[in-house]
Specification:
Elements: H1 9-130, H2 133-143, E1 166-172, H3 182-189, H4 193-197, H5 200-214, E2 221-227, E3 231-233, E4 245-246, H6 250-261, H7 271-280, E5 287-292, H8 310-321, E6 330-334, H9 342-354, E7 357-359
Parallel strand pairs: 1-2, 1-5, 5-6, 6-7
Antiparallel strand pairs: 2-3, 2-4
Helix pairs in contact: 5-6, 7-8, 8-9
């Protein structure tokens, strides 16, 4: 039997020291580990808070990005709408430019035609004087029923057929009688009535009417009207179909001229209403004197349209001519107007078809 080793106090002390040291080491490890775990938990919480903050920032950024995208889309839509409006405005400008160019071409053609007619008139005037117009003028001055004051030689207009027992005078009183160009017509149209009546073109038209009345034969009777969109009698108290006034009745004829001088040009031109008056007169006229400056812009009824094409004006003229009774000559004095090249041709044709006459006076007449 093995003999047990005896336990000495030294051995017990050594073991006690070893176990105390080991316990101290374990305790130290536990303390250090506890601190480490606490630090890790704090860092983890801090990082979670940072992550949540970053998530909130990302969410806010996404919302802001969505707002910016919506704003960008709205801006793009507005840009597209602006481009559309710009394209429409550009197309309108181009169309207006083309229309203006067309009007200018028509104006040049009309001026060339008027110049040619004026040259023909001057040639006729020279020939007439060469054949003895001065003697005929002296005879006509002795037969005038009304005195007309003015300057210049006006007898070249004796080519007009001023005879007839019942003479109807129609004077165009539309807005185009204010001037010879479209731009000036628009400008004068916005002036006061007194300024409109002082327009050079309208004053020439009034003086032309006075000259025609002054050169009517003494045995003639007269009715005078202005026409625009409607027909207005110049005789005091005269209705839609008035009575024939002897040209020797100075008071009645003077009243007509006074009423004409007080007329203010305005509105469109309805030649159909003017010529339709002829059928309503009883007895009817046997001679018509027409003072105008171009083709009509309206028919028998007023329209709301502010523009009329050249083809439409020709149609309105043909429609108005259809209302004329047969056998009544129409003598037209045509004043110049920009952008109406077919007026001279059609009124000349009207004179030929009705056995009347057609003249375009010079600017210094009467």
């Amino acid at each position: 039997m093995r003999r047990r080793t005896p336990i000495t106090p030294f051995n017990l002390s050594f073991l006690d020291i070893m176990f105390c040291g080991f316990g101290a080491v374990v305790l130290l490890v536990l303390i250090i580990n506890a601190n480490t775990v606490s630090l890790r938990r704090e860092k983890h919480q801090d990082r979670r808070a940072e992550a949540m903050r970053l998530e909130l920032e990302v969410k806010a950024g996404r919302e802001h990005l969505a707002t910016l995208k919506n704003s960008l889309e709205e801006t793009e839509r507005e840009v597209n709408r602006a481009r559309g409006r710009s394209a429409e405005a550009e197309a309108a400008i181009i169309a207006a430019g083309e229309e203006l160019a067309d009007l200018r071409r028509q104006t040049l053609a009309a001026r060339d035609h008027v110049n040619a007619l004026q040259a023909d008139l001057k040639n006729m005037d020279s020939e007439h004087r060469r054949l003895g117009a001065e003697q005929a003028a002296d005879l006509d001055r002795g037969r005038k029923v009304r005195r007309f004051e003015g300057e210049g030689n006006r007898q070249y207009l004796t080519g007009l057929k001023l005879g007839g027992r019942r003479v109807l005078l129609l004077v165009d009183a539309s807005a185009s009688m204010l001037d010879e160009t479209i731009v000036n017509v628009i400008r004068r149209r916005n002036l006061d009535d007194a300024s409109k009546r002082r327009a050079p073109k309208w004053r020439r038209a009034v003086q032309t009417a006075e000259w025609l009345i002054a050169n009517l034969p003494p045995e003639s009777s007269l009715q005078a009207y202005t026409f625009g969109t409607g027909v207005v009698p110049l005789a005091a108290g005269q209705g839609g179909t008035g009575t024939w006034v002897p040209v020797t009745d100075a008071e009645a004829v003077g009243g007509m001229i006074t009423a004409l001088r007080a007329t203010t040009p305005a509105g469109g031109t309805s030649l159909e209403n003017g010529l339709a008056l002829i059928r309503n007169l009883n007895p009817p006229p046997d001679n018509v004197l027409l003072i105008t400056d171009g083709l009509p812009t309206q028919g028998a009824r007023q329209t709301s349209s502010t523009t009329v094409s050249g083809e439409k004006r020709i149609q309105l003229f043909e429609q108005a001519v259809k209302t004329l009774p047969r056998g009544i000559p129409v003598n037209t004095i045509l004043f110049p107007m920009e952008g109406d090249p077919m007026a001279a041709v059609l009124f000349w044709r009207l004179a030929v078809e009705t056995n009347g006459s057609f003249l375009t006076p010079t600017r210094d007449w009467p």
